[in-house]
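Form P-L/3: holo structure prediction, ligand PMV.
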Amino acid sequence: MLSEVLLVSAPGKVILHGEHAVVHGKVALAVSLNLRTFLRLQPHSNGKVDLSLPNIGIKRAWDVARLQSLDTSFLEQGDVTTPTSEQVEKLKEVAGLPDDCAVTERLAVLAFLYLYLSICRKQRWTKEDLELINKWAFQGERMIHGNPSGVDNAVSTWGGALRYHQGKISSLKRSPALQILLTNTKVPRNTRALVAGVRNRLLKFPEIVAPLLTSIDAISLECERVLGEMGEAPAPEQYLVLEELIDMNQHHLNALGVGHASLDQLCQVTRARGLHSKLTGAGGGGCGITLLKPGLEQPEVEATKQALTSCGFDCLETSIGAPGVSIHSATSLDSRVQQALDGL
Ligand code: PMV
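OUTPUT (holo model):
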């Protein structure tokens, strides 16, 4: 344990369709993105080990001996469960985080330690290891938003394009490599509160809200069908269907109460350029996706990104369907990633 450098990356993800509805047993389609976060764990001869999480600006160092003393007790616990308060206390002690440490940093470091002590001792992962990573990542999700569906951790673990339905995951075969804009409105939101808001609306107006969820389910299924068709025999009309599905779902999500003025603005700005957008994930701010049709000229894409940036948003162009969580050798990483890992 901890004798070699460990380099891990995981893809970003978006939900194409089915956010919120998935919490109520409907289908969701989620895809990984070609935008990755990296982690490096590097042992040193002085008995210390450095953790570097450059994407969230975290660097910490621990005594290897202390981590090793924790190791056995965690492995004894068998299957993955929610950590007991005793275990969390132990992790906090070893993590040695300062009192003024931000909550996000605290959670990230504790979740990392929790995961690391069970799974990151190998240089190659089997399917069973990935299943375990997925389960542990689900526990991390629970720490962050209470009662998650499991779709986020699944797509970041397995990569590609996934259909998620009541805990059952299947890969979409032959889905096309769609180009998208991922726009962060930078409006903070609270997933837990948004999920609870939808539940309350469903309880208050079951006759109104249940059909919306059923309709979102049908949108996911239609999108899945079209993506399959595009993988077999791509045709321009299929993009028109995807765009219509995006518009309909965005309206449904607004009706569920998870929209936000910033997301409306995002949709309007892209609509003015003939592009279609919807929120992705919990909504209430956060991120939106915009479908980029093939044949769109790069200057037009750049102008759209510029228009979104002028609204105060961050906008990234990327494609869907990246590999899931992966271990890397130090030599395989591109120099920008190396610099980010070294440069904190
Ligand atoms: O905002 P995110 O990326 O955490 O996604 C939340 C998706 C929901 O469907 C709203 C909740 C869930 O657990 O699936």
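COMMENT: Residues 100 and 106 are 10 Å apart (CA to CA).
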